[in-house]
Amino acid sequence: MVLQTKHDQGMLRKHHLLLLLKTIKRAGTISRADLAKITKMSATSVSRIVKDLLDQNFIEEVGETEGNIGRRARLLAINPKGALMFGMNIELEFIEIGVADLSGSVLYKEKRKLDLTNSPQTILNNIAEFLESIKNMYADYEDRILGCGVSIPGIVDWPSGKVITSPQFKWKNVEVGRILEEKTGMSVLVDNQVKAILLGESLYGRAVGVESAACIYIGSGLGGAFMDKGEIIRGANNIAGEIGHTTVTPNGMLCSCGKLGCLQTYICTTFLEKESGRSYPEIFKAKKRNEEWAVSLLDRAAEYLALTISNVVCTYNPEIIILAGALIEEYPEWVVSVKEKLKKYIWKIEQQIESRIYYQSEASIGILGASCLILSEFLDSPIAM
């Protein structure tokens, strides 16, 4: 009972810290009194948490409210350079590393090709050198760097950072977090790619102020992540959200996970390319030329994605749905066709969800999401007091 109480108190404290940070960011500048009014927290709680955030240089006082009647209130704002977080997004063909500040701005990013023919150890050695090169660029800010968050497709043990399995990479039981920490001397947190993206959206994007949200990612694989009461839903083994591996055709195509007929075999770029023998940019170019095979392939993918959205709505009942990934970023016209098909499948009682489906086209979403792993856990740490 004591342990549960401590856990609940820790969760509540983290929730309040993040709520105040998000509210201050959304407002630009705001007084303590208005923070209490908007968040419905007591003035005492707001003052205590604001003091913590000021002590950590996460926020700063930037002036006073206008007017001559009564005592003027001090205004608060995010201090962008109060802390920096490194974010690393590992994808099938590339790795990108960036640096984000507390305002959610990505100050610098760099992308390099990833050669998966190498062993995981060799790849992680190269990644560590890549991270060190960027870390050296920010040597003057060393005391403000909170650590590095890493997002990767697959099943990740949280919070140890071990990649249990990543079918696209053919990795199993790879200690990504531990290895990168040992090689760089930085705090490193590793999580599933889609969960990291949704966390970033809850702190800086479309899901700010939202209690319940879903993210569907369409890239080299198909993944999902869900949030309830402001917290990422993880399940017993952190596999909650692996919608790409739900079976839709018992005798369908062989998935990279070893099963037949997984949902992602009809939607993600890897399988569109495998089925057509063309790269996905070539498939879309062929569709623009009205080549029947390409039109049919992408129409089927849109159909399955529309079905996926409808099923997610019925299963999780989110306030908003965020669509992200390469196909969303690069081909907005395809996303329009998905939304059109959704009208056939969406439950009438939930038709309003159509106006709450957002397309994430920001190229730095992976970096920002990964960096938020570090920020979120830092605020949950007793050290942050």
UniProtKB/TrEMBL annotation:
Any GO BP: D-xylose metabolic process
Highest rank taxon of the organism: Bacteria
InterPro entries hit by this protein: ATPase_NBD, HTH_MarR-typ, ROK, ROK_cs, WH-like_DNA-bd_sf, WH_DNA-bd_sf
Membrane spanning residue stretches: none
Keywords: Carbohydrate metabolism, Xylose metabolism
Pfam families tied to this protein: MarR_2, ROK
Domain HTH marR-type: 20-62
Protein name as it appears in the record: HTH marR-type domain-containing protein
Taxonomic lineage: Bacteria, Bacillati, Bacillota, Bacilli, Bacillales
